[in-house]
Amino acid sequence: MLTYIKESVEELRNNVTWPSRADASNLMVVVAVFSILFAMATWGVDELFSKLVKFYFERVIN
Question: According to the model, what pLDDT value does residue 61 have?
Fold first, then answer.
């Protein structure tokens, strides 16, 4: 297990190309905006289905 951890750390230090701070900040903004938009879209679909179910049970069933 220790060998695996040592090799993982070694690979992170030597073989991984890390983005610059500016690139990381830009990507963070993109992820945050996409997350907010996706959450709003999910909320919208949930509201629509909620209203459709409410309409169905109030109008169609009664």
Answer: 79
